[in-house]
Amino acid sequence: MFKRMKEDIEAFRQRDPAATSTLSIVLNSPGMRAIWAHRREHWLWVHGHKGLARYCSTRARKKFGVEIHPAATIGRRFVIDHGMGIVIGETTIIGDDCMLYQGATLGGTGKETGKRHPTLGNHVIVGVGASVLGNVTIGDYAKVGGGAVVVKDVPPRCTVVGVPGHVTTNCGVRVRRAADDLGEPVGPETARHRQYLPDPIDQTITILEARIAQLERQLEAQAQARAEEDREDADL
Question: Does the reported pTM lie above 0.85?
C-alpha cells in the first residue's frame, strides 16, 4: 500500500507543475485523494461489500468532485489533474501511467450491457472535457484532445480530436484522406495512410477543392467551345 502511495505522489510530482512538495500534494490534490479513496472502495467492492463501497464512493464524490464507480479497474501511477467533474463508469479499465484532466468522462452510451465503458491502455492522456463513450479501446500512448467525443476504437500512439472524435496524427505523422478517393493516383505516401481513420474536416476541404477544380475545368471547356463557335460564325 505504501509503495503504491509513494508511486502516486511521484507521478503527481512529475506531471503536475503545481505540485511543489509531498506535503502540498497530499493536502491539496483532490485528484490524488480521490484515487486513494477509490482504491479503498474497490477493495470493498471486490470483497463483497458493495453497498458500503457505493456509499463511500458517493461521499468521495461530494468531497472531491470526482465520481469513480467502485467496480472500475485503475492501474498504477494514475493522475487526475484538477479533477472536478470527472466521471469514470463501472466497467471502465484504465492501464498504467494514464492521466485525465478536469471534466473528462469515461462513460457509456446507454445502449449497451455488460462491458459498456471504455478500456484505456497504458500512458493514455484524456484532455479537458473529453468524453470516451461505450465499450471502446484507446491504445497505448494515445491522446484524446480536449472536448473530443470518442465512440470508436483508437489505435496506439494516435491523437484524437473533434466531435465525433477522429484520428489526426499517428505516431507523429498527420493522417490525411487517401488521394484515390478523389480519383487521383495512389502513391506510397497516400497508400500507407489507408489503414487509419481520416480527418473529416480535412476530407471535406479536399473534396471541395477537387470539386471546384472540376467545375473550373468545365467552365473553361465551355468557354473554349463558345469561342470556337463564334469564330466559325464569323467565318461564315
Answer: no
